[in-house]
Amino acid sequence: MLQVKELHIGYTGAIAIAESLQLNPGDLVALVGRNGSGKSTLLQTLRGSLPILSGSVTIDEKEITHWSPQSLATKIAWLNAHFAGVSQLLVLDYVLLGRTPYLGVLGHQKESDLALALHALQRVGAHHLKDKQTSSLSDGERQLVGLARALAQDTPYIFLDEPTAFLDFYHRKQLFTLLKELAISEQKGILLSTHDLDLVLGFELPLWLVPQDGSIRAQEPMQGREALEALLI
Predict the structure, then answer these.
(1) Average pLDDT estimate for 93-107
(2) How far is CA 221 from CA 192, 200, 227, in A?
(3) Among 7, 21, 89, 162, which is most exposed with the fewest C-beta within 10 angstroms?
(4) pTM to 2 decimal places
(5) Within 104-224, where are the H helices?
(6) Which tens digits make up the pLDDT trace of 154-210?
(7) What residues contact residue 133 under an 8 Å CB cut-off, 6+ apart?
(8) Is there a contact between 74 and 102 (Cβ–Cβ < 8 Å)?
């Protein structure tokens, strides 16, 4: 279980506060707020990339500040919308990067690492892309491949920052469907930052709201876009 208590987030000063939040394996939670409200800052703090100003974030009752970066990478996988691909980097090699936290000092991959990477590609329906260069992928393909890398990392939690930003409606809906399925079947706790309110409502996702007043709070699934938007003012 990932728990947040009295968490103040920001850079030089607090821009938002979360009194109590909880993410369990099997949950798919939508992180919703206006631009600049602190969604990305919260994600970066939860994954240990930004220092905690005050309060606590724990995984399995252990403060994330007590985890080494490598150990924390076995608990949380990260995916954002900005990976554009790298020339000469093949999809399978990119997905194998998810196994980095588990490699020894020499960084040697095992057959089991390759098997996990191939299974992850199969799981997201992207096995046919394994020999393509990452720089040649479409936006939708890049998101699937990125999700495969996160699955290959074999963590109980996955954080996604605006993963549908460059996708059309069909591929956005596909990704939401896949994430909900993965949360349940793979027992992943998935936290998804998004502006796709219609999909959030359509999939009846529980919410973490980041309103303009900076008081981050959990909210049960809602009905009605207007009602949801009113909570973000």
Answers:
(1) 84
(2) 14, 8, 11
(3) 89
(4) 0.92
(5) 111-123, 139-152, 169-185, 197-202
(6) 999 999 998 888 888 888 898 999 999 999 999 999 999 999 999 999 999 999 999
(7) 85, 87, 88, 89, 90, 91
(8) yes
Q: What tokens does 102 get? A: 């588990």
Query: With contact defined as beta carbons under 8 Å apart, do 4 and 21 qualify?
Result: yes
Q: How far is CA 44 from CA 32, 57, 77, 185, 193, in A?
A: 15, 12, 12, 26, 12
Question: 26-53 in b/e burial notation, b at 16+ Cβ within 10 A?
Answer: ebbbbbbbeeebbbbbbbbbbbbebebb
| Dihedral (CA of 1, 155, 42, 229) sign | negative
Report whether pLDDT(15) > 70.
Answer: yes
Tokens of 220: 């049960």
Do 117 and 95 touch, CB atoms closer than 8 A? yes
Residue 215 in tokens:
């008081």
The burial class, CB within 10 Å (0-12 / 13-18 / 19+), for 131 is exposed
- Who's near 4: CB < 8 A, 6+ residues apart? 18, 20, 21, 22, 46, 55, 56, 57
